[in-house]
Each structure stands twice: as structure tokens, then as C-alpha cells.
Amino acid sequence: MSGKNVKDVNLKLAYRLLHPRNTALLTCVDGEGRANIITLAWLMPVSINPPLVAVSIAPRRYSHKLIEESGEFVINVPTIELVKETLYCGSVSGRRVDKFKETGLTPIPAKKVKAPAIKECIAHLECVVRQKAPAGDHTLFIGEVVAAYVNKDVFNGRFDVKKAKTIYHVGGDEFITHIDEVTVPKIKDS
């Protein structure tokens, strides 16, 4: 690509060329059972067998400390109806406030880990940390999914995007959701 329509991007903002990103509410818990929520857009599957997901969290975040101590977390998938709560949980530190209390989100017992799931979310992946690695100014936590469950009305092997309305982070305080039209391109067999 070259020409008049190309501009250089500040390398500290280059990651935003990969946005919008799916957004989740990650829950974790301290040694006394006090739960916290952090909003994440830097997460992805990294293996099918075993089922592994990776989340990237800065060491200065309170949730980083809790995950290091507990060795587990739950990835909760919110819908666009929870965008205000999602923004709040990514803007305020759990060191100072109870995010469940402040947002009205409901903690429910997870099936296999101590960290709670969030009742209002449509999907949950319970994870046990199997590896962690420094990644610049963040830590990459790789968790094995030990339980996964979803609202049956929005998932049949994959999300029904017209019903699920999951959240994608654009950047800053901006979020989007799916459009009602799904494009399925046809390609020629080679």
C-alpha cells in the first residue's frame, strides 16, 4: 500500500490497528474471597486441545495481583446492554471500590474455580492459570478452560450475532456491537 491515502501511526498506538476487539469482564478473587472485575479487550484463544486462552494484564492492575495469588479467573462475556458497567469496570480500581456493588452486577458461584461468574453475562469461561510470561509492560496469563457455559438462546456452536450483541472495544471509551447483517463470502474452490 502506498500513496496519498497512507499515513504513519505512532508505534505506541499501533495496537489500535487491531481494534475493534472483543471485550470481556474478567473476574478474580483474593485470598479472603473478595471478588474483583476488570474489563479486558486483550484476550484470545491460543489452543483447542487443551483449551487455552490468553489474557494480557498490566502488573499495576489490582486484578494482576489477584490472578497471580489465586492462579485462576473467569472470563465473562457481556452484551451491549452492559456497556456502561463494562466501561466502569475498566475505569476504576478494585483496590478502592467493590465493582459488583457499584455496578449492580451479580456474582454467582463458578462451577470449578473460586472466582465468581457474572450472572448478567451471556457466557463464562472458567480458567486455571497454566503459564504466565512477561510481555513488555504487561503479563500474558495463559489459562486452561476448566468449565465453559453459555446462554442457550444465543449460541449453537457459535454466537448468533443478531441475538448475542457482544461488545467490541474500539478505543478509549468507545464500544460497538454487531450489525444485524452477517456477510458470508463465497470463495472459489482451488
User: Beta-sheet strand percentage?
Assistant: 35-45%
Number of domains: 1
Name the strands of the widest sheet in spatial order: 3-2-6-9-10-5-4
Which structural class is indicated by helix and strand composition?
A: mainly beta
The major β-sheet equals:
7 strands, antiparallel
Secondary-structure topology with pairs:
Elements: E1 21-22, E2 24-29, E3 35-40, E4 43-47, E5 52-57, H1 62-70, E6 72-77, H2 83-91, H3 99-103, E7 107-108, E8 117-118, E9 123-135, E10 138-150, H4 161-164, E11 168-171, E12 174-176
Antiparallel strand pairs: 1-11, 2-3, 2-6, 4-5, 5-10, 6-9, 7-8, 9-10, 11-12
Structure description:
This protein has 190 residues and is mostly beta strands. The chain has four helices and twelve strands, in the order βββββαβααββββαββ. The two termini are 26 Å apart. Strands 3-2-6-9-10-5-4 form a seven-stranded antiparallel beta sheet. A three-stranded antiparallel beta sheet has the order 1-11-12, with no helix packed on it. The chain has one domain: Roll (Pnp Oxidase, Chain A), CATH 2.30.110.
What's the quick description here?
It is built from 4 helices and 12 strands. The chain is mostly beta strands and 190 residues long.
